[in-house]
Amino acid sequence: MKRPVHRREAMAIPMAVYAALFVGVSLMYIIGLSFLTRGEGFTASPPVSPHNYERIASPIYLRSLLLSLRLAGLTALFCLLIGYPFAYFMAKARPKARTWILLLVIVPFWTNALIRIYGWKILFSASGPINQAILALGLVERPLKLLYTDFAVLVGMVYAMIPFMVLPVYSAAERLDWSVVEAARDLGANPIKAFFTVVVPMTMPGILAGLVLTFIPSIGLFFLSDLLGGSNTMLWGNMVHNELLKSRDLPFAAALSVVLLALTGLVILLYRKRGGSAETMVF
Amino acid sequence: MKKNSPWAGVYMALVLVLLYLPILVVVLFSFNSNPGRTANFQFEGFSMQWYENLFDPITGYGQALMNSLSIAFWSVLLSAVIGTLGAIGLARRPVRKSVLGKAGAAALSLGEQLAVLPIMIPEIILGIAFMALFTALKMSFGMVTLVLSHITFCVPYIFITVKGRLATLDPGLEEAARDLGASPLRALTTVTLPLALPAVISGCLLAFAMSMDDFVISFFVNGPTTTTLPLKVYSSVKVGVPPHVNALCTVMLVAVFFLVGMGQLLQARAERRRLKSVKADS
Description:
CATH architecture of the largest domain in chain B: Orthogonal Bundle
Strand order of the largest sheet of chain A: 1-2
Radius of gyration of chain B: 24 Å
Distance between the termini of chain A: 35 Å
Oligomer: heterodimer
CATH superfamily of chain A: MetI-like
Structural class of chain B: mainly alpha
Number of domains of chain A: 1
């Protein structure tokens, strides 16, 4: 029997070269830049020193980092709490219903994310539908301040990220061997116990992928806090964005993104340790 | 056991309502007759005024849509070639022997790791990295920088989908073609590629959606004349009251539902035909 597959490896060379150039080199480049000093216009120049990192270790930046991490953590948590049951029920639904629900989850994905966030802006505004409704019902006397709050940012984040929890959990739950769940029930486990001792561990790869997929992007989505949080919510992404476009300090912006890169690396490392792979992240 | 209680249906419906709530609001307000500063927060009556001049050159939405479509087209086309070749090259790799030698094989593995990295790290990092790199290379920002950056995050979607599909294929199929005298290239193009095609298409669709929707990376690498749709939406939303945005969203939503519906219809028809031919065979 001929085994022709070996020589094919060469076909992956263009992809490897492209990735090395645009991902490898560009990331190395900003790591290098982060040790330089801001120069004339939009350039960077020596001396080489870790002064940008020393500047990051100040209360303003640390507070922003903590705020971002807390928001990203809450986003991942709420996505799990809301998205897991949804994905689980979806996997248990009849095949025909399943296809439709899956489509309904994916379609908003295909429309512009910014427009969807803009929909929340309309909803949350002082004279918007939510306030009109609660005013009409007499629940409050004056419109509530919903827009430009941390709450609005959290709702927007969870909203934008929830498909990234639902889809990996669904694809794990769909492959679930339901006879194992039945066996647990036959052996005397009540539905809740069966769920937590059988279903949850068996869908753990989906949960982990979902947590990573919702946590990591939440740290960098500066446009969301820009639109819903106004100037009150300075997340890490906003810091990077401001340094680059307002202060035009390329080396410092590079240092801020290197910190974010290191944090991401840490999360991915933990994810890999628990047996996660990149493959589970595309569904 | 594998049966939902009625409450599960209620829960799913509730989540879906929340998922569509902001979209419905946008659709509703696209028909608002209020032209004033509160146009987006107070609904006054039905009107089509925002649709009438939506693609008037003066609004810039038509141009932005065209820019986004052509960037997505070129990025996905090039990514499909790079990513599919990558998947064929790296699916079911021989563990010990490699034609590239030990160092070559290690370099290829590193390349694979780097290729899938863009979908795992926050977009803002890549946005800044690309901006810095293109500035250093003295490239002018525009179509080329946008397509080059979009390829970087389109490749992993296509690569992972196709590689996953290739891993599930029976290697015996290709071996059979080879034993029957097909050259390696012919076995690849007549057996493996057609079998992998559905995965290539679904990977491309995903990559196309990601490219059309990308805001963060495009924000850092776009040029003065290459405003994409998300960038245009951002600048209008940021400035103030853009009722045109609502109309645009509604148009896009209708288009997406139409395409998805067509896809479902075609799939259902293909399925019916397959069942019929299976029946005719037996």
